[in-house]
Protein 1
Amino acid sequence: MGKALAQLGARREEATVEILQSPRPALLGLGRREAVVRVTVKEVEPPAVVQPDQRVEPERRLPQGLEAAAAEVVEQLTRHMGLDVTVTAHGQETGHVSVEVAGKDVSAVIGRHGQTLDAIELLSALVLGNRYGQRVFLTVDAEGYREKRARTLRGIARKAADRAVRERKPVFLEPMSARERRIVHLALRDDGRVTTSSVGEGDDRRVVVHPSEWRRDARPPGAPEDVDEDDDA
């Protein structure tokens, strides 16, 4: 049980322990059976993962020891993934903690379009939220990947807007996470030539860039019917 709690980064009172198999002592050196338990972190209100461009109340302060705890949790996660990286954390006056990962295995930390990085960030925020009993404002980055990806997405958004205006029809982008869809929406928010919305569900949700004069009743063949304004915009 101690090993399971260490892997989850949780204390005993923060976890639920279920005995799946009771131990049995060996008889004449035979038939010994180890105990099997299931350890799960107790559910609390999910902590918010706040993007750097979102404002946090000035009066918010970092809980004592949060920087070190954030670095420890991310380091444990990457170590259990078998990755050779270094982890540092820095607190900000806004109450936000930025965790930076670097090292030879950093590409594995990032994953495709940052999906592994997003997962590490979410899991870390959940563990820290359980540990401190409050929302944790956390960003996990790897050698500046977040900003590099944001610049790429803004470039994709501009090209999609140009194409939508040129061809006078909607342009459907590849599926993206909510974080990435928000970047695209914000990139084109002040472009009067186009509007943006999102379609699809779950992992298939994507941004659609519409020319401003495009009519919703003039969808091209095969276009999804559920073109709605995205709450990420």
Protein 2
Amino acid sequence: MFNVLGVSGQIALSWSTTTAPLGSSSFPLVPGVTLTTGGSISGTPTQTGTNTFSITAWEKTGNTGRNMSQLFTFNIKASSWPTITTPPQNITNVVGSNVTFTVVASGAPPLVYQWQFAGNKIQGAVTNSLTITNVQLTNAGTYTIIVTNASGATNNSATLTVISPPLITNALKDTIVPTGESVIFNPGIAGSPASVRWHVNANVITNATTVPLVLTNLDVSHCGIYSLVLSNIAGQASNSAHLLVVPPPAGADAPRLAPLSTSGSPFNVAFPSLAGYRYLVQFASQLGTNWETISNIPPSFSPSQVSLPVIPNLSNGFYRVVMTN
């Protein structure tokens, strides 16, 4: 009697004589196995049950002469080893969510379950399911289930991928540049990989899907509010900044500085300013002498009316405003 454990196992038996070649079998073989001319039985049984057969070896070719027969009984049993019929599946989810890995196994009872994370045993994780609550980035990795019974053990693994929301760590900066120059919008970003979209004045910029955003050979048509939008399944982040492109303060197409006005005693110096230009208010006691800057007005993103009180001890003299960028 031969007990072959496991329908999925392979039968590989041979029987030979030193005086004559083997002949053929005189019976139907076990379903799924074959007998070779060399005397080997091999294959994968396709059904359980008890099968009895004989093998006969003849002294001479053509199945003549003396012969010898041997009866064999195969008892094909269903495997008692544990088998994972439904393995755990890979999971992708966001930070703060709950996830559950589940496995379905068969085999001779009792079946013993043990979950591992990154090769380390998870204490108390001894059922066919594993739930992780409020997952964090540190929970991402490989989870393995080991199923054991008295006959042996088997295992299978699945991966948990945790997605965190995108973050913009360094905000975009408002920028003023002269025509013909370039600008680079390069904010700091963090979090899980995210899709990138750039907008200008709420309109999507075609093919602008990476960070940084580089704009070259600027002119006044590039002026506007530039926005970065990052998004993934965990959330979205956005940030915006102004871009102002101004022509040089000299040349045929340059904007002109409006006349100054004065008032008061001591008087004020007043003038309208244009967006994007720096203004220097300067004083000289006599024409032809060096001009002294008494006020430095940085560029702004919108035009305004500038009114500056003049220092009393500088009141007697000459004043001028220099527009620059």
